[in-house]
Amino acid sequence: MARGLNSVQLIGTLTQAPDMKYTAGGLAILELNLAGNDHVVGSDGQLRELAWYHRVSVFGKQAEYLVDQLAAGTPVFVEGRLNYRAWEDASGQKRSALGINAVRVDVLTHGPRKGEPTVLDARGQERLKNALNHVTIIGNLIRDAELRYTPSGDAVTRFVVAVNEQYRDRSGQDQESVHFVEVNVWRELAESCAELAKGDPVLVIGRLVKDNWTDKDGNRQYKDKLEGSRVEYLTRGPGGGGASTRPQPAQQAVGAQRGQQSRPSPALDIDEEFPPEEDLPF
Amino acid sequence: MARGLNSVQLIGTLTQAPDMKYTAGGLAILELNLAGNDHVVGSDGQLRELAWYHRVSVFGKQAEYLVDQLAAGTPVFVEGRLNYRAWEDASGQKRSALGINAVRVDVLTHGPRKGEPTVLDARGQERLKNALNHVTIIGNLIRDAELRYTPSGDAVTRFVVAVNEQYRDRSGQDQESVHFVEVNVWRELAESCAELAKGDPVLVIGRLVKDNWTDKDGNRQYKDKLEGSRVEYLTRGPGGGGASTRPQPAQQAVGAQRGQQSRPSPALDIDEEFPPEEDLPF
């Protein structure tokens, strides 16, 4: 399995004063609601400005010294990582969410951006017209990519990438976790990605977007996804995908092989943690 | 001094087979010469395609398992850091260079890029028309920014950013080094950055370019610089600039103060390590 790469860079403004919480163990957690506008090329080839709203979690000392510097409207730069969580809700339904954990947060001042145009959102809050939303991941597909067409005829390919993370916990133990990132790519890129198969290691660069739809029970659902603007195939095996030099955990056997190298799939089967097809917007 | 951020992402192709060396201590060093084309907006507002050539150093085990997978033309993704070196040449002249040290290298295969157009360079080597050259740094200006105008009337502002790096060396000691990165920004951004002053903490996002010029002795000189497409001012003091929680090393006093916080300058005086003005291309 490819060694994971998981990098998020955001520049945006806070939509409200940040919310500070403490865990039972006394760890500070600061929740930042960030917004910004950035630009994508639409199906007509024109640049379109799109708003994004994402929540960023900041932990520990950094949370404590940031809390007094931040207010609604404060512009910040965030470097962080996508963080996948899965749980069962009160009714026993499996749920999952993709969040952003900050590695660092820097408060921006009005220097070069002085006089830079902003837009006001529905709550009257300033949103940067030239925000930043840059995400880079490396991981493996957990199942074959799926190509579909929207009612207006745009090709869209969906796939889910398992991004490995290896870290040392507070007690000094080596831990491994996996972040499942749903990726959508559009039009020409969608068609060229349709052949991506389970286990394939990929590099995806894009922006984090929030899909929302109404599920079959009439409830509004939200899900953060990566809208890929660039997808690269990585080679497999030693060195390919920046292969870890650590011993691999036990992995499921995979029937089909592509290329010269064996193709282990992620150890977890998370298919059922994703919303059923009928809950998806198209 | 702002806690440094130093991130390089490149996608390009090797211009030749990589060159493997070993240090006296047995550490493998693999040198990759990479090339690619990317796009910038020119003074006429039009997208222009520009070639870049950069050298990337890969170390240790990663170098050893990569060497057999790489040949002239192999496409790779590199995540790395800018690395500043200074030395005296044989004639006692102070010299410096900015290189790229790889954190990881992934070999790309012809997946979605299948059929993607490439150009041939002067040596007949394929160069990706859609390469990637994405650099992000956070650091402090070592002297005031300088605004000039090219003979054709384009504004260009130059400044040098000291990027801190803290790391643990092989013997487990905490070390600190500083990377000096020369930044050029153009036109409107140049004019808005002209007021940046010594000590100011900034975030710069841009592409790494190689300036070349003939010095007063008639020798061809090359220097890697960051061409900034985005510059953000950071706030100072605790939390601002992602302030380190470590004790600060002894720092020079700085006369002028801006803002509410003290403004230490980098501990090193490297002014003389940069080429004299007459050696610069304009």
TrEMBL record, chains A, B:
Residues 269-282 have a biased composition (Acidic residues). Residues 234-282 are annotated as: Disordered. This is Single-stranded DNA-binding protein. PANTHER family: SINGLE-STRANDED DNA-BINDING PROTEIN (PTHR10302:SF27). GO terms for biological process: DNA recombination; DNA repair; DNA replication. PROSITE patterns: SSB (PS50935). It comes from Truepera radiovictrix (strain DSM 17093 / CIP 108686 / LMG 22925 / RQ-24). One of its GO terms (cellular component) is nucleoid. A motif (Important for interaction with partner proteins) lies at residues 277-282. GO terms for molecular function: single-stranded DNA binding. It comes from the Bacteria. Plays an important role in DNA replication, recombination and repair. Binds to ssDNA and to an array of partner proteins to recruit them to their sites of action during DNA metabolism.
